[in-house]
Design goal:
Layout: H1 13-34, H2 48-79
Helix pairs in contact: 1-2
Length: about 80
């Protein structure tokens, strides 16, 4: 089966840096907005959907990072 050539399955270093940075900024801003600048708790049932979105975001960024490091490791093995 042919390997897909897209930004999730075959990410570049630039893609990893951009998505990691945007993820950290997005999650931080979401936490600030949900807690009204840390004046109330974020563990409320009305924020459950936002928590699911943030967890999904973490899984996508982790997948991109894992795929990048696997690609880099395979390239190093091909050189040796």
């Amino acid at each position: 089966m042919k390997k897909l050539e897209n930004w999730v399955h075959n990410p570049s270093k630039k893609t990893v840096i951009i998505f990691s940075t945007l993820s950290v900024i997005g999650i931080t801003l979401n936490l600030l907005a949900m807690s009204d600048l840390f004046t109330e708790t974020v563990f409320q049932s009305k924020y459950l959907m936002m928590w699911f979105i943030m967890v999904a975001n973490v899984f996508v960024v982790a997948t991109i990072c894992i795929n990048y490091f696997n690609k880099r490791r395979q390239e190093n093995f091909k050189r040796n």
